[in-house]
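so the lab meeting is tmrw and i was supposed to have these ready like two days ago... anyway. pasting both below. for each one the top line is the aa sequence and the line under it is the structure tokens. i havent really looked at them closely yet so no promises
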Amino acid sequence: MASSFTVCRLHTIGRGSLVKCLQKVDTFLHRNIGTNVVAVQEEKNGFKSLNAVQAERQEQAERSVLISCRSRTNEKKFLKYIANYGDIQKYFFYESYGMYAVVEFANKESVASLFEGTAIPSISHESLVPFKSRLLSMRNLDSVDLPNQPSGKKRQAQTSIPINELIQRLSKEESIDQQITSLTEAYQLTEENCRLRFLVCSLLKDIAAGFFPECTIKPFGSSVNGFGKLGCDLDMFLDLDGISGKKATMPKSGLFLEYQMKRANLERIVTQNILSVIGECVDQFGPGCMGVQKILNARCPLVRFAHQPSGFQCDLTANNRVAMKSTELLYLYGELDPRVRHLVFTVRCWARAHGITSSTAGAWISNFSLTVMVLFFLQRRSPPIIPTLDHLRDLAGPEDKSMIEDNDCTFVSDFSKIQLESNTETLEQLLCEFFEFYASFSFRTLSINIRKGKEQNKPEVAPLHIQNPFETTLNVSKNVNASQLDRFVAVCQESSWLIQQNNTAPSRDGTKGKANITPWGVSTLLLPSQVAGIKSRKRRIFESSSDRIKSLLESLKNTNNQQNQS
């Protein structure tokens, strides 16, 4: 579900500093979020594991509330009222079907105090479901309520910037390396967006905790692996492994207590039953949860719904531990070398611009498959930029041992044990080499395998074979057909030629105005492809770069004229 989403910058408030903050703010901030992206973790000497990052963010989320601001008021008055219930640690505002505020208190007691001062709505013509959540509404009795729906006012979408705007931005950079960095900053998740994702998980946990008090709900996939793009879905995992009593030791003699529990023949049936009940509760009791679907017969059963206050499309799964390990692995690779994330974001953006990937199900290459292809390419550099999964497994200690349904998901968690080889290739070199690598890759006979870090013979007949890093008998690209693979190869060949022809920034000549910005470098790769003759990889027709640039400039000019007229 697409929704409007505008965020102001994140505000941090220390103890005793609220008064100073209030002196500086007078009205709601409606600024779009900037491109100065804060990483998922603070920059420190060394690395922080994904588990540590998640634990910290979950603790922050449990001290936070989400407030719908239904009435006109200013920021100063809002904060002064909320501060009556406890010290505010951080806060920010955003728009999604109305104005919302995320407020993080210094402790959980402040949330409890806020609850004590919160009233149940008085509605005469409807009946209320008496479920109290940390999704609240702020009303101003001295002002008229605002409809909590999108108005005619222009709002920033909860997606990355439009492709034409991105091309303009990249065309202003001085080098291809700067273009790739700028693209990453424009597309990756912001600090505020990450916090909101963990808060939505925490709100959902409040519902599930009625049945499973010790459960946790964690985001996984793009939301936390470091490769998430603004607007991506929120994938969540209901974790019941941490409940107490599972590791209790049975005495050799004497009395012993154990819980009485329902039983089922298969763990899958248990998972389906749990998600069925949680899905029903989300549908009936979850404020802001819309369009709930229980997709229980899928290979991985899930509950899908739209969380309207945040604008996220959500998928809740359980017993999906392999996906959690895949998330941890991608996070680790992204932390080892900054070039990994930069290259993945650029290749993903390029692929979406050419229809190689899609947000809908089909025969397209998935973002996960594309990410694995980038990782494999980086393992094949000389010297390698990132290690193989087998090498990471060999470095693992006893505490890293992980067997999930007979799948070896073991790899090292201590970053200090990983010694990287010295590879000084630039982002520009890597992007050019990526296109050349896959433009000539023997997909017909070879398989991509990041566990071994080298090509292997295909174990099955499929146009594209990418081995699942942990469930090694599975092909993560099994859905891709020959036509889509041919298109990928053809566009790689075209892009390799294009970036070599347009690798130098044009002279500015002191000109001003958007219409005079000439796309070059990465920006030319985002123009519509002119590949023809897909059925035969040897038969390709390239439109000249100048013609393509001219076509784009006309498009940008028309867009600017429309904006000026509006």
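ok protien two:
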Amino acid sequence: MLRAGPPSHTLLRLPLLQLLLLLVQAVGRGLGRASPAGGPLEDVVIERYHIPRVCPREVQMGDFVRYHYNGTFEDGKKFDSSYDRHTLVAIVVGVGRLITGMDRGLMGMCVNERRRLIVPPHLGYGSIGVAGLIPPDATLYFDVVLLDVWNKEDTVQVSTLLRPPHCPRMVQDSDFVRYHYNGTLLDGTAFDTSYSRGGTYDTYVGSGWLIKGMDQGLLGMCPGERRKIIIPPFLAYGEKGYGTVIPSQASLVFHVLLIDVHNPKDTVQLETLELPPGCVRRAVAGDFMRYHYNGSLMDGTLFDSSYSRNHTYNTYVGQGYIIPGMDQGLQGSCMGERRRITIPPHLAYGENGTGDKIPGSAVLIFDVHVIDFHNPADPVEIKTLSRPLETCNETTKLGDFVRYHYNCSLLDGTRLFSSHDHGAPQEATLGAHKVIEGLDTGLQGMCVGERRQLVVPPHLAHGESGARGVPGSAVLLFEVELVSREDGLPTGYLFVWHEDPPANLFEHMDLDKDGEVPAEEFSTFIKAQVSEGKGRLLPGQDPEKTIGDMFQNQDRNQDGKITAEELKLKSDEDQERVHEEL
């Protein structure tokens, strides 16, 4: 096929002087074989018997082409075939390196097109022929299939097949990319695919790790984008080709799906998706946070979700318990905020990845919903919502018996409990450890009719373990309204006198003066003291039970009655106990 070569390579161009002699001889004898109409052929006859449906380009003068052919005479006898040599013809068209008939016959041809060419002698080897191979004045018949075409002026051709609606960033020089590809020659012959290896192709762009055409073709791609990249040989493997799969001077076609892209200089990227109004506090290092998340790769592949476990992810922030990128990305967030955190691999799981769902060098995207956070040093946050208009002279204190209504929820609004569900206020004695510590604290200092909002951190609520209906480490939000308050009794007392008790208490208690006080008589006496305002029982308890307990305490020998020797005030008992200890 080249200008100098063995006789077996047909379509050789004869020297100019010899060609001129052939032309002179041809004029003297006529132009050789007749055309189908009976006259001699004046030009190449072209039969396009297979035309591909898509023809992105046609052969033009000066193009470099690669093709296969069979060459025969009119009687069907083969004189040459590229198939027999197992080598494509690779040559420039229209610059005198082919016989004129072949030059003309290839013009306008598409890749994968098949043509039958009839080349008259004066456009082939004329009246001289090729000794021992092509007789003089031979009309030549060629079956040609074009497999490749390119030009030295070509550039990389990029066609976008699919572009995602959201493009967080585009590939630039020095970026590290992960992508899948199918590689074919221009005629569709496959030579390589990343899919068969079960992993992406991972490399730097613009750093000499790729062929030049691929370096160019990947620029500007978005994660999730699909491209068709056509690369001319001089930007691919050139004259040498590559192994046995990519021949010399082959144009390459890559169908590429970009999975993700990052740069070693990248930091964590934050995007606020939803910010609740009234954010008064943002998370800082050392806070303990509960949050939900969906974790995906840059192409949208989901690798993990807290929602699937129906449980928040609970951890300290900024303390190294989670990957560095998440540690950074959670700081500064508000309770209830939704944010997207994009983490480059060097701040995630690096080159090795983890498990079978996060590959090496993967960029991770977390869509996070912050449920709540707190600090182990947090106190109860108290906000007064309303106070009664009238003057409040007395407020709640430790030991008081209080009745209050409340609504309890998580900070994300999830309703937990409400006293309204029971149709009656909740009752408690402050400081008696009957309610969680944070609520006990938040109810102190209130006026009757006052409404408050209390934010109770978990260490003052139900802790890491939670309680029935309350998740572990949950911050609780209470709205409370104080309905009533009563002064409480000193610790250990069931009844106190408003004034000094009678000088001879037993005589007053022994109503029938028989020298003993049974339970019924004791109950009648105590109730009379309460009704007359001389004393009061422990609030918040069943009066009958309280009086019964008092009687049991005084009936020291448990014979069902109290005698003068048995009856003692608690203050006297406490004093005796002090003397005994001394």
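from a quick look at the 2nd one: DSSP finds ten helices and 28 strands in the chain. The CA atoms of residues 33 and 280 lie 97 Å apart. will dig more after coffe
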